[in-house]
Write a structure and sequence with these properties.
About 55% of the residues lie in helices and about 0% in strands. It has five helices and no strands.
C-alpha cells in the first residue's frame, strides 16, 4: 500500500520519523523482478496499474488491514488472468523456451 497510496506513505514516514528522501518506492519491484527473472521466472509488474486505479479512486486495500479489498482482488485477477491463460495454453514462446519475460 505504501507504494500505491502517497497518503499512507506520508503517515508512515511521519509516524516513524523517517526522512522521505531516503525512500525508493521502486526498489522492492526492481529487486524482486530482477531476482525472479534471473531464476527464469515470468514476472508481471502490477504496480503501474495499481497506482492508476488508486489515482482513479479505486480502494485497493482494506482500512483495518492491508489485504486487498474486493476491488483490489478484481484488479489483480483482471491483470493476472490473461497472462496465466497465455502461459497455460503454451502460447508464450519465451516460456516454452525456458526464458523469462517481464510484463
Amino acid at each position: 500500500p505504501f507504494q500505491i497510496d502517497p497518503d499512507d506513505l506520508a503517515r508512515y514516514v511521519e509516524g516513524y520519523g523517517i526522512d522521505p528522501a531516503g525512500i525508493d518506492l521502486e526498489q522492492p519491484n526492481r529487486i524482486i523482478m530482477s531476482e525472479l527473472e534471473e531464476r527464469g521466472m515470468d514476472v508481471i509488474d502490477l504496480l503501474p496499474a495499481f497506482r492508476r486505479a488508486h489515482g482513479e479512486g479505486v480502494r485497493l486495500y482494506g482500512a483495518v488491514d492491508q489485504h486487498f479489498t474486493p476491488e483490489g482482488n478484481l484488479l489483480f485477477a483482471d491483470l493476472v488472468t490473461p497472462e496465466l491463460v497465455t502461459l497455460l495454453a503454451g502460447e508464450d514462446d519465451d516460456v516454452s523456451a525456458g526464458q523469462s519475460s517481464s510484463r
